[in-house]
Inverse folding.
């Protein structure tokens, strides 16, 4: 039977690429970004190869794995964060170790938040986002930036800001996607677990272990879609 095969150089190149990408998710993601950029240029209006209706249908199907990936990550984000923080803190039986872990976590959270804020300010000052976009329809509806009050009285507003960090209703915070409130709730519950570590909370820790295993499995499925 006659079998159509690619020329040997192409087969060798395909085998080399497959060997290079195998098990390297970060490299696969970078290659996917490059292919997506090239695909977008082919489908774009400058190439003129497809009509707008055809491009819409094609991109909807091409974007399907990415949309599934985002939905899976969003689906398990809250239970993964809650279970991992409570299990990590609640499983600590040494108060000194808990104190050391808490200090390190606080320093890490402050430093990463400060770094993210500095990077955002620096990049915004260089790029000037929105300066090249004109929206004449909304020009009369959106007040100018100078007219929007952006003052913060440190002595007066700081106590209320600190109080608002603790969610009054963790379930509502989870529904609204307020991740900071969920993290603080998980830290408080995790510390409470560690302070009264006894046989009564062992079933809860075991349950959280099971939740973590399930969430990690779903995350692996999502990463496969990348």
């Amino acid at each position: 039977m006659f079998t159509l095969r690619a020329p040997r150089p192409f087969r060798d190149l395909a085998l080399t690429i497959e060997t290079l990408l195998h098990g390297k998710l970060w490299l696969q993601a970078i290659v996917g970004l490059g292919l997506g950029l090239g695909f977008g240029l082919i489908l774009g209006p400058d190439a003129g190869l497809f009509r707008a209706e055809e491009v819409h249908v094609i991109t909807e199907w091409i974007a399907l794995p990415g949309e599934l990936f985002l939905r899976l990550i969003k689906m398990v984000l809250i239970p993964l964060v809650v279970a991992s923080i409570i299990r990590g803190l609640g499983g600590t039986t040494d108060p000194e170790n808990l104190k050391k872990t808490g200090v390190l976590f606080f320093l890490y959270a402050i430093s990463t938040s400060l770094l993210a804020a500095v990077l955002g300010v620096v990049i915004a000052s260089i790029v000037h986002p929105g300066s090249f976009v004109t929206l004449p329809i909304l020009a009369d509806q959106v007040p100018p930036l100078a007219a929007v009050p952006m003052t913060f009285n440190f002595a007066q507003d700081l106590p209320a800001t600190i109080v608002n960090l603790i969610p009054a209703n963790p379930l509502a915070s989870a529904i609204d996607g307020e991740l900071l409130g969920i993290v603080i709730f998980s830290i408080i519950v995790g510390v409470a677990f560690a302070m009264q570590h006894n046989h009564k909370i062992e079933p809860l820790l075991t349950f959280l272990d099971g939740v973590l295993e399930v969430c990690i499995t779903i995350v692996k499925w999502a990463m496969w879609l990348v």
Notes: The longest helix spans residues 95-127.
